[in-house]
């Protein structure tokens, strides 16, 4: 049923136009609306049930009133027949008294169908017809609301016909009373009136039976109407409540699910992820916040990448310069090592010769003692000076 309602909801243009402002409502307002709508529908159900119970109570009151009406009519005929036998005035007055129920209902019927009925007269008539005061208002409402319905219309027609027959019965009873009061003993006249009274009594029995039958049909029709109405309202409450609950929960769960997925992707570094804002409620506002957060993170990440790229470029340039300087330093070290190798080679020969001459001079001095060989010493000394000069010349240069 929910899936069927969902297809109808999306295929129809009218619900789509209604869906847009519904989406823009805040989540608390949506929940309040759903609860308020269901509460309103339940109140409507209760009012409908109260209306139905009132009408059914009115039908019940009419059925009871019909029984009292028939009882009064039968009692009146009985009193009239007794009056024909006893010729006692009390029996005739009993006939009139028995018709007070019928007269009260007749008065109420005439007044209730006026354009502006006087409810005091209506109440007085129904109370005279022995109707309970609590049943009077439902009966009046039933007559005024449903008088065009075939069942009620036919029942009122039977009621009207019964009142006309009661009037004819009163005329026949008055004629009976006049004959007896005048002391007329004409048997044919009495028989004629008696036959007329018997005919009216039979016709009244048919009318009351028709009234009861029609009211029974009307009662069953009203019960079916109440059942269909209440069933329709209950079905409407359930469908509307379930549909709104389904769409609201689906919208919330779908929005939260999308937000969770996009948040995870943004957390993984996919800052270009964006969500479509479908409403202006809390989910829509949260979606807008997530989109703004993603945009800010993407902007910050792009700026950070640019700074890293520039810094990397600077570091690369510095590394290249350091590499060039390292190459130059390496070349200088190589040249230094080569120079030192050559210099050490060039210095080693004269130093070795100088060391030999100094050692020979030292031996000569030690062997000669006090007798020094001046020439040899000078020779060694000159050679040592010469070698020292050879070492000193490159340094001076």
Q: How many β-strands, per DSSP?
A: 0
Question: How many angstroms separate the termini?
Answer: 112 Å
User: What does the average pLDDT come to?
Assistant: 77
Strand coverage percent: under 5%
Number of DSSP helices? Answer: 11
List SSEs in N-to-C order.
HHHHHHHHHHH
Shape: rod-shaped
Largest sheet: none
- Integer tally of domains: 2
Secondary structure: elements and pairs:
Elements: H1 2-11, H2 13-24, H3 27-86, H4 89-98, H5 100-112, H6 119-128, H7 133-146, H8 150-181, H9 187-267, H10 282-368, H11 374-396
Give an overview of the whole structure.
The chain folds into two domains: 2-255, no CATH class; 282-396. The protein has helices spanning 2-11, 13-24, 27-86, 89-98, 100-112, 119-128, 133-146, 150-181, 187-267, 282-368, 374-396. Helix 3 runs antiparallel to helix 9 (187-267), helix 5 (100-112) runs antiparallel to helix 6 (119-128) and helix 8 runs antiparallel to helix 9 (187-267). It is an all-alpha fold and 397 residues long. The longest helix has 87 residues, at 282-368. The model is unreliable at 1-16 (pLDDT under 50). It is built from eleven helices and no strands. Helices cover 89% and strands 0% of the residues. The protein is rod-shaped and about 220 Å long.
